[in-house]
């Protein structure tokens, strides 16, 4: 068959990295990204982009660890290259702190990040309300630059990108052989996934260049993540809230909580408020499906539902989605060669 045509729907970090993996692993493919929103208007643009995994209850831990490790290795190589500042990727050291010692003192990802260790008594004096902590170095992506860097890479490999609202995957079957669904929270409507729900996140992006270390409360609600130009302060986790409007009361609450962990933030300038809807479900939906309608078949690969942990696993899940696309192509080529017989 001629070069298979693949459409990737969605242009957040999952869609762009999946398109790049497909283009890299299947050079004979023609890959197109379709999305109604590109950076700076995606959910990924709101994300802090720090590599600290969130656990998916419905996904085996060894799989999550593999996704995280592949992502960390990929971004570590970029952080160690001349591309690092353009791609917005840098190493950052800091602390995850707990009011009570967690059940799991060694999370599954502790040997993937760098220099993971329990905090000393002296370090813990910085956080008088907390009794236990973990110190480590990880990677941080500044999201808009990273998305733009991915777009540049895609263009260089010949991937086309179009602004287009896809209301039904079926509308693509006459133009494309395979469709990859990376629509995040959009999959709720696009494929009617009732297991997918939004977890609203409100964050502040502030100018506080003296803050160099990340601080994350182990409950996941309060966090301070320094980027190259701005510090992300968070946050909220509001299940089933679809509102994209910033809430002023929430802004004050986030700022006060972060200042209680890092009092110097009282001097932060130029506070911008952002809201994103994390596409959450029990497990990432990463699978092949063949849609059929009136004898016509459309192979689809789903890669969505990464919730709060998309940046931490994006490259690993993109590689797996690209492998599934390869399986679809092999199946199509098999059926087209049988048809010739």
Automatic annotation (TrEMBL):
GO terms, biological process:
D-amino acid catabolic process; L-aspartate catabolic process
Kindly indicate where the leader peptide sits in this chain. 1-19
Methyltransferase among the record's keywords? no
Location, primary (coarse class)? cytoplasm
Known cofactor(s): FAD
What is the role of this chain?
Answer: Selectively catalyzes the oxidative deamination of acidic amino acids. Suppresses the level of D-aspartate in the brain, an amino acid that can act as an agonist for glutamate receptors. Protects the organism from the toxicity of D-amino acids. May also function in the intestine.
Q: Know the name of this protein?
A: D-aspartate oxidase
